[in-house]
Each structure stands twice: as C-alpha cells, then as structure tokens.
Write a structure and sequence with these properties.
The complex is a heterodimer of chains A (303) and B (231). Chain A has 303 residues and is α/β, with parallel strands linked by helices. In chain A, 43% of the residues lie in helices and 15% in strands. Chain A has an 8-stranded parallel barrel with strand order 1-2-3-4-5-6-7-8, surrounded by 7 helices. The longest helix of chain A is centred in the C-terminal third of the chain and has 19 residues. In chain B, the strands form 2 sheets. A 4-stranded parallel sheet of chain B has the order 3-2-4-5, with helices on both faces. Chain B contains 10 helices and 6 strands; from the N terminus they run βαβααβααβαββαααα. The longest helix of chain B is centred in the C-terminal third of the chain and has 15 residues. Classes of the chains: A alpha/beta (303), B alpha/beta (231). At the A-B interface, helix 5 and helix 6 of A face helix 8 of B.
C-alpha cells in the first residue's frame, strides 16, 4: 500500500525515519530500512539533517524505492534555490518517489559547514506551494510543464511544544492551505500538552502523526530540554531513565547484562504511543540510531 | 543614503483598507532627497488618499526618521492625533518605517519601497535594518522587517527553531517572527498571518543601471577612465 493509500484508508499510521550516511557506506541504512519496512507505512529520509553534509535524500530514497520501501522524501530549503528545489522534485518523481515532506531546514550555523551560504529562497510554505503547482502542471514562474507529476503527496511538520505556539499554528494553517496532506510533528513527550495542541488545531482537517524520539539516556533528555526548540521531556521521564542508567551501571559492575535503559526507553515510548493514539492519526518514530529497537517499541505499544 | 521609490497608490490603499483616519509621517532625510517624501510629493499623496475617502488627520515631518529620539519627539508633539489615528502611513526608508512602528502602538504602513544603499562606504548601519529589497513588506509584518530580523529571512512565518522566543542561530538574538507575531497580536491583527503574500522577488534588489552610474563608486571608477581618455 502506498503511503497516500494508507493515509486515505483512515488506518492508524506509523512512519519512521532513517538518515543517509556521511560517506558512501549505505549498507547500514538499507539494512535498517529492511528491518522496518513491513512494520511501517512509510520511511522518511532526512535531508542533510542538522545542516550536516551527507548523501542526498533523493539518492537514498531512490535506493529504498528499488527495495520496495515506501519512502518519504524530506526536502529542506537551506541548500537550494527555487529553481533547484523544483528540479529535484521532478527528478525524484521520475525515480518513483511520490511522498515529499517540505521543511524550512535548520540554519547552516547549526551544522558542520558553518561558513556556507544559507539559501532559504523558499521556505516550508512556499516549497509546498511550488510542489503543488508542479503537480498541477505549472512551475513557480507560471510556465507549463510537459506532463505534470500529478501524484505528488505532500506533507509538512509542526512543533506542538513551541513557545509561543501561535506562530506555529498560523504557519500550520498556511501549510495546509498550500497543499500539505499529512503532518508529522517534532518530538512529543507530554500527551496532555499534545491533547491541548490538537484541540487548538481541531479546525484543520489534516492527519497528524505525533513525533516519537526514543530516549537513550537521562543525559540525552536533559540535553534536548536545554538545546532543542519546542522539545520538553518531563522530569518523571528523566528520572525513570536516570534510574535505569544506575541499574545498568551496577549490572555492568557485576558483569551482568546492562539493558535497563533500552528496556525503559522502549517502555516510555510504548506508553506514550498508547496515550497519543486516541489523539491523532498516527505516530512518526525518530529512532536516531536505535532503528533496531523500533519493532520492540511497536510491539510493546500494541501497534 | 537609502534610496527609495513611492509604492503604487493602489498598493497603499490596499494596506489602508478598513481604516479611515490616517496620520502621515514624512522623513526629511534620504526619502526627501529621493523626492519621495518631500513636501510636494507628500501633499500629492495626501490628496490622493482624501480623494479615495480617507481622512488625513495630520502630517508630521521628522528630520531623520531613522533616529528613534527624533521620532519620539515628533510623535509626542502630535500625541492625541496619533493615538486616534486608525493607521499611520510613513514616507521614509525601511529603517524609518520600522523606527516609527517601534514608537507607536498603531498599525504602521509603508508608502515606499527602499531599493538601494547608494555610495556611502564606511557607513555604520545599526538597527532596525533595511534590506533595500525593493518591495517593502512592513505592512504585512507589523513594521518589523522579516528579511533582516529573521536569520533565515523567511517571509511566511516562524521556522521551528526559536526557543523561548530566541533565535536558533544565536540564543541572545530574539526571533524576528516571534516579535512580528507579538506585535501583530498586540495590534489585534494576528489573523493577518493567515495571508500569504507573493514570493519574494530578488530581481527588485538589483540596482538599476542608472543608479549604478549615479553612485559614488561608479564615479570613482569612471572618472579616472574619463581623465585618461582625455589624456
């Protein structure tokens, strides 16, 4: 089933993400996708995530497509102007890619080429407009296309925990107006806060997939709280992870198996997913290197 | 000097839709030098506004509208009229418009497009800053320039990066779009963010040939050549 069919079927959606390698060692990404592909409705491929130079998202999506994976191409506006972005969408379409997630992208100073020119000719909203225009047979300059990529299926993101959240909500409205047919969110850790956000966007008729980032440690949670915009891990979860970390330390000292953190992380994610399920149309899991634990998370969540 | 051009009257009238009592601020600095804000052109615009059903409740001139102190002094002399105005129309460069918008809690509209910072090498530009983009968006953005106040120069609202209202690029710099949202909300105009203006046109940033020829660097470059030719 294509991702569009899954969305239109009304089922509870599960998507996941993989990140292309820095260098041409593509094997691990393909293996990760192979592990996930039968458990999820689509796999996002990040586009130069965190402004770090890597293999392109389009090339990785094409390789996944060849292996029967329903790929969701992420595109950011940091590195290409409107000419190049439109061209890339057409090229991806020819390679069989239909799902495109449009994002603005992190600024170059957050990445590993801090001296690069930040482009941002378009942003998430205008990229959606451009892509929808292409699907309807016209480029941004109004020129007619020879055959339109009419089956493009477009998505966007939102940060429900942004402070203030209103600018995000206004922009989300414009994203939907500009052609977004599905929404994936930044990491959510508080189902109650997420419920209040969903209430505020209840006038938008678009499926929302709540973002799940697997917690690897208490330190990671604290780091995200301090540094990642719109992400807030509640203290009780940090405490749970810290206690698991202590147990792992003790187990290691005794020469025993130290898997308490992994178990706790899976448990937290599964609990969150069960709490989020009644609130939205699906979940989008960002395992950040823990792709091999995703199946266990889904199982624990009963998905 | 920041060179500016008048916006088409239709565009200005579009900004003023729903507002009748309009207070006009005109700058005696660069915008007057460009014959955009001088008394004659200001009077002509006022006449156009009145012909289109607007009531111009006052015209104030300020020596240099980029100077916050001078703007505050001028506004204090017209306090009552300014407070009663439904909108304030500013004939100045983008810096002047932003300076006025900072000083009043009324909707501020640009009457000009700033196009070009001509021939002033060594000039220290503080803030607010104008990108001389040639198509002033300050009406849409509550008098805060999205191109200079946002690190990504975004036109369609905040990215996902701001944390506690501060920019992802520098946590000591406020997010331009959070500021825009907050000022729009204070003016009761936040719903405007559901509008999507046309894409930015980068062509309007290219200095026209005549401007290039008129700027000081062009004089520096062409004068010696001319002198050489004359032998």
């Amino acid at each position: 089933m294509s991702f569009r069919e899954a969305v239109e079927s009304g089922k509870f959606l599960i998507t996941c993400e993989v990140g292309p390698p820095k260098g041409v060692n593509i094997g691990p990404v393909l293996e990760e996708a192979e592990l996930l592909k039968d458990r999820v409705d689509g796999i996002n491929v990040t586009d130069l995530q965190a402004a770090c130079m890597r293999v392109s998202s389009v090339a990785t999506c094409a390789l996944l497509k060849q292996r029967g994976v329903e790929a969701i191409l992420q595109m950011v506006c940091r590195d290409r102007n409107r000419i190049s972005l439109q061209s890339e969408i057409l090229g991806a379409y020819l390679l069989g890619i239909r799902n495109v997630l449009c994002l603005t992208g992190d600024h170059v100073v957050l990445g590993d080429h801090v001296e690069a020119k930040p482009v941002f000719d378009l942003d998430s909203v205008s990229l959606l407009q451009a892509a929808r225009g292409l699907a309807e047979g016209k480029d941004l300059a109004g020129n007619e296309l020879e055959e339109a990529p009419k089956d493009l299926f477009l998505g966007a993101i939102v940060t429900p925990g942004a402070e203030p959240v209103e600018p995000q909500i206004y922009k989300l409205h414009n994203k939907v107006k500009a052609g977004a047919r599905f929404i994936q969110t930044q990491a959510v850790y508080d189902a109650g806060a997420f419920a209040r956000f969903m209430e505020r966007v209840s006038d938008l008729e678009v499926p929302v997939l709540a973002g799940i980032v697997l917690l690897k440690s208490a330190g990671m949670a604290r780091y995200m709280n301090a540094n990642v915009a719109g992400v807030s891990v509640p203290d009780p979860l940090i405490k749970e992870m810290a206690e698991a970390g202590q147990k792992d330390k003790a187990a290691k000292a005794d020469g025993k198996k130290a898997d308490y953190r992994v178990k706790t992380s899976i448990e937290i994610a599964a609990r969150l997913m069960r709490d989020l399920k009644p609130l939205c149309r699906g979940v989008h899991i960002m395992p950040l290197g823990w792709g091999h634990h995703v199946a266990a998370v889904l199982e624990a969540a009963g998905l | 000097m920041i060179a500016s051009e008048p916006k088409p009257v239709e565009e200005i009238l579009g900004y003023l839709e729903g507002e009748r009592a309009i207070f006009v601020v005109a700058c005696d600095g660069c915008a007057t030098g460009c014959e955009v804000a001088d008394p004659e052109h200001t009077a002509a615009l006022v006449k156009e506004l009145e012909a289109n059903g607007k009531s111009v409740t006052g015209v104030a001139r300020v020596e240099m509208s980029c100077n916050g102190g001078l703007v505050a002094l001028m506004l204090s002399q017209h306090l009552e009229v300014v407070q009663q105005a439904e909108g304030i129309l500013v004939l100045a460069c983008g810096v002047g418009i932003q300076t006025v918008a900072r000083a009043v809690e009324r909707p501020v509209h640009p009457a000009t497009n700033s196009t070009y910072l001509g021939g002033f090498q060594g000039l220290w530009r503080s803030e607010p800053r104008c990108a001389e983009c040639g198509n002033c968006m300050l009406d849409y953005t509550a008098g805060i320039c999205p191109y200079t106040a946002c690190s990504k120069s975004l036109l369609y609202g905040s990215c996902g990066g701001p944390k506690n209202g501060m920019c992802e690029v520098d946590p000591e710099v406020p997010c331009g779009w959070v500021q825009i949202y907050e000022r729009l909300a204070a003016l009761g105009r936040a719903e405007r963010l559901k509008e999507m203006p046309p894409l930015r046109n980068f062509r309007s940033m290219l200095p026209a040939g005549e401007r290039r020829r008129a700027s000081l660097w062009a004089l520096e470059l062409t004068e010696p050549e001319a002198a050489e030719e004359e032998g």
